[in-house]
From TrEMBL:
It comes from Mastigocoleus testarum BC008. The keyword Isomerase does not apply. It holds the Pfam family Glyco_transf_28. Residues 3-142 form the Glycosyltransferase family 28 N-terminal domain. GO terms for biological process: carbohydrate metabolic process; vancomycin biosynthetic process. This is UDP-glucose--sterol glucosyltransferase. Residues 301-404 form the Erythromycin biosynthesis protein CIII-like C-terminal domain. Keywords: Transferase.
Amino acid sequence: MNIFILTAGSRGDVQPYVALGQGLREAGHLVTVCTCSSFESFITDHGLNYGYMNNDFIKLVDSEAGREMMESGGTFFGLIGAMLKLLKVAKVINKQMLRDAWNSAQAAKPDIIIFHPKVLAGSHIAEKLGIPAIMAVLAPAIVPTSDSVAIGFPNLKLGGWYNKLSYKVLHWGYHNYDDIVNEFRQDVLGISKFPKSTSPIETVNGKPIPVLHGYSGLISPRPKDWSNTAYITGYWFLDRKDDWRPPAELVDFLEAGEQPVYVGFGSMAGRNPKKMANIVINALEKAGVRGIIATGWGGVDARILPKTIFKIDKIPHSWLFPQMSAVVHHGGAGTTAAGLRAGCPTIVCPFLVDQPYWGERVYTLGVGSKPIPQNKLTATKLAKAIREVITNQIIRQNTETLGEKIRKEDGIANAIAIIESFI
């Protein structure tokens, strides 16, 4: 089977799909991953074909406007305002992404398309080619339920009617892109307009699109009223290559003292990464713990770090996290999964979208501290949370138990079985 995977965003939006693609390849399928061009070597290094997509989405996230959006994530209306400011430029970027995806799909000649909802082209290309489409998401963010409010919306606790309404509003938001989507459908694909009454999880004739959720039901249980076309498979982990070796300096640091605390915010930092770095360094010192800082957000000068803190760039979480006493991060789905799988007590400092959700799940499950939103983060608050999670024996036992259960799941195998059932 020839499988075409569409995704876009940061590494956290790409790596799980590469893991899924690698599993599909090992199951005998031909796999092409189409995403931003900065990930081409990452994809081909894992034995998958690469489908070109421009890198403008990554540039937008890393722009001043993108960083402003990250800082607005503390409130619903702040995030909506920032997204509306970006709408015009986002349309230009998505217009080209639609065409890039189509060009890559034509070259790949797929039998099925698996797509992230950020890439608007997925279901439309599948319709043109007359093949199945499956949406694949990393959070319970798009299938309606009365059990809980849609991610990113205020949790007003008004009951099931309000929760369902939040999903209708979310789905309506996709129609902001109707002009470029319909231009793509008519002028490029040669098919009819997409009806305004149709949601992003439906085909043009109203048939539901299957939705795979690449996370564990142990962390976010299946809502009781989901349709039978929504699936929770378990996480899609991409483990390090067998020939990977850690830097000698890092190994020496780990062996020189007590287990450190990991701190990394991925590509998240807002407009003042140096301030964020100073908060983290001061918090580790206040907590009296050794630390490892991942420098994705910049702002750290290794020459002036205390000897108790080690700076790293990119180290596989599957190798690093089992050696940590705790992990502090932004609450991205992949990083949260890696920490919990390793049995690490977790502190989430969320920026936006699904990150506050994962932070609340960590706290509710008793495997970490109450999340600290990035716009309220201080060295004192972070130091207090670190001391809490490394000294609280209940939290530590909960994380060990949950980690054992997650390690027994096989989300990739579950997803492959579902995908194969649609052909």
